[in-house]
């Protein structure tokens, strides 16, 4: 890579403020991913490195953006297709160049460049409708002012772009779900786990890889829906954060009540007896 | 899919016959026996019956029948109610600050419009949910989660109120138990069996002449059914003063709701039928709150309802002073409301040792004079304003008959066209950006100074 600089880096260097990495200058020196054999207990909050967990206000803001999308994860699970393995995705995460997570990265130009490469690579005319959707979401990321969301978005962009540098995934991703995956990692996961942890820590890397696959419309290779759901539920930092889990439960409640009201309206009313 | 009448430019799809029929009869009336089904069928297929728009039941199971017949206990209900409400999503961020009722913030209709699910308990049994729309005269339609058994129980509240007048209302297989009357251009109409009242029949009937094409059909049907009790609003109850009906109907009691019942109409109805006329004050959101049997103050009902009267800044007014009626309502388990601002105004007084609401304002029964001389009830306008997507409005008719409509949101062109057709005259429609532009609190949304309205 260093011997023959790709257009990839030239473009990003010019427009998004990224520096072409030296060999081995990764966000982590962690060895390529190997699945944890058992869930590692999460460190107590006061033992977390500074900045490891987004602050509460940040989290609420990001989750509000996520919940406003009214995504129904049950539906997403039901429509997932077999995809790449979590190991593949996790390895890509561990290979992210440090410059992607730097504070001075201009996330919107970075997204524009990478999407242009992506859509160019599949022969579409950029920016198409889906590309515009992703850019809208990245602009939302920028608007939140959240460093966690920005890093989360950058990591998703890296996962898409890494095919140029590290070869294609065993099962290609569908651009149809790029926007959804971008939102899920930038707003839902980044709200509760700083993206730096997605790179540094095996459990969190696995969580990020699984989250990415899910919202990209894929089950991890070799897993059926029940297995994949069970493992992700065990990893899910949002569900394990009591306060934020309550926010999530309320969001799901809202979806459920709204759905039931619509269904009840579509079915038929019940007899009533007087004016109210 | 329901198709509105192609010849009627004001027809709305949801009122097309059969438009929202989805269940089987076994689901509508799980306990219906052969005799009950025969009674129901006789009403449904009566030769003078109107074209029913809807088919609907009370959906009560055998256990549900027993529960619906019993009023919920009221001892200690408020503390229990606040404990439930404290766990609602709506209060999560302030739950620690909530103590006695007076420490709770008030809730408005806009809060429910914004996110009604925040007021539905997280552990509520949503399988019992039915959807109720609160349209009435209070603005954009609000979808309300109603509870099947609570709706059924509301029938037995009527039985109790009749009993308090010394009248024994029991199922009579030879008579329809209840006729629920409306008088509007379009309405849901249906007949049903009341599972918890001897499987007696009831019907929601639209007295509008357009629904009864044959001469004498309306009178003939009502006289044949002989409803024991009749409910409605002032507009529909006024139709009962037709001499043919007065001569033949023998109701045990009449109930009025939704809009203010004038003393004159009350007296006319009492004189015509010689039975109690009970005016019930309530909102769909809160369920029935109070009742007046004599045209005086509305006595707060002995059920899970607590009434306060607050000033503009949300503080209780002095006893007997006028203010906004704020209700804590615990009958509907799917919508346990605390300090709900009704937008209605009145004074809290004492009537024979019971709290009551006097000088109640906010339930105007307004009618508009159309160019052809007919009187159009405001509910007909409400349907078209809501169909046009308006979130709020104020419609006024001057003494010269001219009509202006001020609306918030919606398609003003569509609304203007619909109102012009309804009233057969030009209507000036003006859009304003917010509900506040209509005036503070619940705006006086319909007003007509035209002669005869």
Summary, kept brief:
The complex is a heterodimer of chains A (276) and B (453). Chain A has helices spanning 7-15, 56-68, 73-78, 86-94, 107-121, 129-144, 147-166, 178-189, 195-200, 202-215, 225-235, 237-240, 242-267; strands at residues 81-82, 218-219.
Blueprint of the fold:
The complex is a heterodimer of chains A (276) and B (453).
Chain A lengths: L6 H9 L40 H13 L4 H6 L2 E2 L3 H9 L12 H15 L7 H16 L2 H20 L11 H12 L5 H6 L1 H14 L2 E2 L5 H11 L1 H4 L1 H26 L9
Parallel strand pairs in A: 1-2
Helix pairs in contact in A: 1-5, 2-8, 2-13, 4-10, 5-6, 5-7, 6-8, 7-8, 8-10
Chain B lengths: L24 H4 L5 H11 L17 H8 L7 H10 L22 H7 L13 E6 L7 E6 H16 L14 E5 L7 E5 L5 E7 L10 H9 L3 E4 L1 H5 L4 H6 L4 E4 L6 H11 L3 E7 L3 E6 L5 E3 L4 E6 L11 E8 L7 E15 L2 E8 L5 E3 L5 E3 H10 L4 E6 L5 E6 L3 H12 L3 E6 L13 E3 L5
Parallel strand pairs in B: 3-5, 3-6, 6-7, 7-8, 17-20, 18-19
Antiparallel strand pairs in B: 1-2, 4-5, 8-9, 9-10, 10-14, 11-12, 12-13, 13-14, 15-16, 17-18
Describe the structure.
The complex is a heterodimer of chains A (276) and B (453). Helices cover 58% and strands 1% of the residues of chain A. Chain A has 276 residues and is an all-alpha fold. Chain A has one domain (58-265). Residues 1-6 and 29-52 of chain A have low confidence and may be disordered. Chain B has a twelve-stranded mixed β-sheet, sandwiched between helices. Chain A binds chain B through residues 246, 249-250, 253-254, 256-258, 260-262, 264-276, and chain B through 20-23, 54-59, 89, 92, 115-118, 120, 122, 126, 129-134, 136, 143, 145-146, 148, 151-152, 154-155, 158, 178, 180, 182, 188, 190, 192, 194, 202, 204, 231-233, 255-259, 280, 282-284, 287-288.
């Amino acid at each position: 890579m260093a011997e023959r600089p790709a257009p990839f880096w030239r473009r990003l260097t010019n427009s998004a403020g990224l520096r072409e990495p030296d060999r081995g200058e990764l966000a982590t020196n962690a060895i390529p991913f190997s699945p944890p054999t058992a869930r590692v207990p999460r460190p107590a909050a006061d033992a977390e490195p500074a900045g490891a967990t987004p602050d509460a206000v940040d989290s609420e803001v990001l989750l509000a953006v996520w919940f406003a999308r009214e995504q129904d994860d049950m539906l997403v699970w039901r429509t997932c297709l077999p995809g790449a393995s979590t190991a593949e995705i996790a390895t890509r995460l561990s290979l992210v160049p440090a410059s992607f997570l730097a504070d001075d990265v201009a996330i919107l130009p970075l997204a524009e460049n990478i999407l242009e490469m992506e859509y160019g690579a599949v022969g579409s005319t950029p920016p198409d409708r889906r590309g515009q959707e992703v850019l809208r979401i990245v602009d939302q990321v920028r608007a939140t002012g959240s460093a966690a969301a920005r890093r989360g978005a950058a990591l998703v962009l890296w996962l898409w772009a890494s095919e140029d540098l590290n070869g294609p995934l065993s099962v290609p991703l569908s651009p149809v779900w790029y926007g959804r995956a971008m939102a899920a990692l930038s707003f839902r996961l980044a709200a509760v786990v700083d993206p730096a942890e997605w790179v540094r820590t095996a459990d969190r890397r696995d969580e990020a890889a699984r989250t990415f696959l899910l919202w990209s419309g894929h089950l991890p290779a070799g897993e059926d829906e029940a297995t994949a759901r069970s493992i992700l539920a065990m990893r899910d930092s949002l569900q394990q954060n009591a306060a934020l889990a309550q926010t999530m439960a309320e969001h799901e409640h809202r979806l459920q009540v709204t759905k039931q009201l619509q269904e009840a309206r579509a079915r038929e009313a019940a007899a009533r007896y007087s004016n109210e | 899919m329901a198709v509105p009448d192609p010849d009627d430019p004001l027809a709305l799809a949801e009122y097309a016959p059969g438009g929202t029929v989805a269940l089987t009869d076994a689901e509508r009336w799980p306990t219906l026996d052969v005799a009950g089904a025969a009674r129901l069928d006789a009403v449904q297929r009566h030769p003078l019956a109107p074209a029913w728009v809807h088919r609907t039941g009370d959906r009560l199971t055998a256990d549900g029948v027993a529960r619906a017949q019993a009023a919920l206990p009221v001892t200690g209900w408020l503390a229990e109610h606040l404990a439930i409400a404290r766990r609602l999503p709506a209060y999560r961020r302030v739950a620690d600050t909530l103590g006695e009722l007076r420490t709770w913030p008030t809730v408005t209709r806009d809060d429910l419009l914004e996110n009604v699910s925040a007021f539905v308990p997280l552990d509520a049994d949503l399988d019992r949910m039915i959807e109720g729309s609160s349209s009435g005269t209070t603005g954009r339609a609000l979808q309300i989660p109603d509870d099947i058994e609570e709706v059924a129980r509301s029938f037995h509240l009527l039985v109790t109120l009749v009993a308090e007048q010394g009248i024994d209302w029991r199922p009579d297989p030879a008579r329809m138990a209840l006729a629920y009357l409306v008088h509007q251009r379009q309405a849901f109409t249906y007949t049903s069996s009341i599972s918890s009242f001897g499987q007696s029949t009831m019907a929601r009937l639209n007295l509008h002449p357009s629904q009864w094409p044959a001469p004498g059909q309306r009178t003939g049907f009502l006289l044949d059914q002989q409803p024991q009790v009749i409910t409605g609003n002032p507009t529909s109850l006024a139709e009962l003063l037709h001499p043919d009906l007065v001569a033949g109907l023998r109701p045990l009691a009449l109930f009025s709701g939704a809009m203010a019942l004038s003393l004159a109409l009350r007296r006319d109805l009492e004189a015509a039928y010689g039975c109690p006329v009970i005016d019930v004050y309530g909102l769909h959101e809160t369920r029935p709150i109070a009742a007046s049997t004599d045209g005086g103050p509305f006595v707060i009902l002995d059920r899970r309802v607590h009434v306060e009267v607050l000033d503009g800044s949300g503080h209780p007014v002095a006893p007997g002073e006028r203010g906004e009626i704020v209700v804590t309502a615990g009958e509907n388990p799917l919508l346990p409301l605390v300090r709900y601002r009704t937008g209605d105004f009145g004074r809290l007084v004492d009537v024979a040792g019971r709290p009551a609401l006097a000088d109640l304002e906010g339930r105007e029964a307004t009618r508009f004079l159309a160019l052809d001389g007919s009187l159009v009830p405001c509910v007909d306008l409400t349907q078209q304003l809501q169909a046009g997507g308006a979130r709020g409005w104020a419609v006024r008719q001057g003494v010269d008959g001219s009509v202006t409509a001020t609306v918030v949101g919606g398609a003003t062109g569509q609304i203007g066209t619909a109102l012009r057709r309804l009233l057969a005259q030009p209507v000036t429609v003006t859009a304003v950006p917010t509900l506040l532009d209509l005036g503070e609190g619940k705006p006086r949304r319909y007003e007509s100074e035209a002669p005869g309205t």
